[in-house]
Amino acid sequence: MGRPSSGWRRSRTSSTRGRREGGVGLERKEVTVSNLIVVIGAGSIGQAIARRVSAGKHVLLADLRPENANAAAEVMSNAGFEVSTATIDVSSRESVHKLVEAATALGDVTGVIHAAGVSPSQASPATILAVDLYGTAVVLEEFGNVISRGGAGVVVASQSGHRLGALTAEQNAALALTPADQLLSLPMLQPDQVKDSLRAYQLAKRGNSLRVMAEAVRWGKRGARLNTISPGIIITPLAKDELTGPRGEGYRRMIDLCPAGRAGTPDEVGNVGALLMGSDGAFITGSDFLMDGGVTASYWFGELAPKEAK
Fold first, then answer.
1. Distance (Å, rounded) from C-alpha 86 to C-alpha 6?
2. C-beta atoms surrounding 221 within 10 Å
3. Cα separation, 210 vs 287, whole angstroms
């Protein structure tokens, strides 16, 4: 997963001078900003949402791979955004906490876009649960402690969570409410229960939407909102890995047979993110927005429905 890092840098430094905090490794601004948007996962979807909600604000782009964050920062900086970058491993609470410290040193956190994750074709069940489930829970806990009044957060989950069969009420409550550091010890998440990466991914994404519902209650006490977007197949580098991976035929079939008849784009997810983080979405919190071109509808009630074994 890479070593946790607290380092961050500004992409545009002409207006501000930084200093090093002894023993911590953080570069702190002498002048803070009043509106800070934190983007975790500097990929296409995270950037698309950030572009729509960050005009006139400062963006802190965090990614496991510094080169990804730096490349995204250059694109956004050239488009007129003021950007800093950071390195984060969401499967490490220490790393997430250091990102929170870096963010609050920059200014008031008014938005959090959590778009980091791994897919079934990229990782083992254990890694998927550590990054997509546990990592999301930690991000929501840590940033829920500092989000500003009037702020908003969006977690990018997946349509896969909607194709998982019904869980028991006890399992739903466990995924929603178990303290993050105890999540991976739940009996339902042990290797004898989660034997393949797709099952791990579906559980993680269902867990994300449940976690957001529970955390929205806590964020609401700070005057902030929190929602989930569950996209279908969105054309990104990660999606291309899936389309060319062992499950590629199934994904291409989803695209062909879904009501929309095509894959989605990051900008379309950005439009929904802008609604959920902006004033037009001020009455929306604790919700999960499924946007998959109708794949899930077709899975349960149409041509994509699993064929019953004879």
1. 7
2. 8
3. 9
Residues catalogued as catalytic: 201, 205
- C-beta of residue 241 within 8 angstroms of C-beta of residue 122: yes
Measured distance CA(284)–CA(230) in Å, rounded: 15
Would you call 273 exposed, middle or buried from its count of C-beta atoms within 10 A (0-12, 13-18, 19+)? buried
| Cα-based distances in Å from 231 to 114, 236, 246, 292, 293 | 13, 12, 20, 5, 9
Top CATH class of 29-301 equals alpha beta
pTM of the model: 0.90
CA geometry: angle 126, 191, 166, nearest 5 deg:
95
Tokens of residue 287, six digits: 């919700």
Confidence at 307, pLDDT banded by 50, 70, 90: confident
Residue 262 near residue 252 (C-beta atoms within 8 A): no
Higher pLDDT, 132 or 22: 132
Give dist(CA 296, CA 200) in Å, integer. 18
pLDDT cut 70: percent of the chain above it: 89
Q: Which two tokens stand for residue 8?
A: 């961050």
Q: Tell me the chain's radius of gyration from C-alpha atoms.
A: 19
Q: Tell me the per-residue pLDDT of 211-266, one tens digit each, with 9 for 90 and over.
A: 999 999 999 999 999 999 999 999 987 788 778 888 789 889 999 999 999 999 99
Nearest to 85 by CA among 7, 146, 2: 7
Q: Measured between alpha carbons, how far is 43 from 68 in angstroms, rounded to an integer?
A: 7
Among candidate residues 285, 106, 275, the one with its CA nearest the CA of residue 213: 285
Closest CA to 46 of 115, 110, 140, 118: 115
Q: At what angle do helices 44-53 and 66-78 cross, to 10 degrees?
A: 40
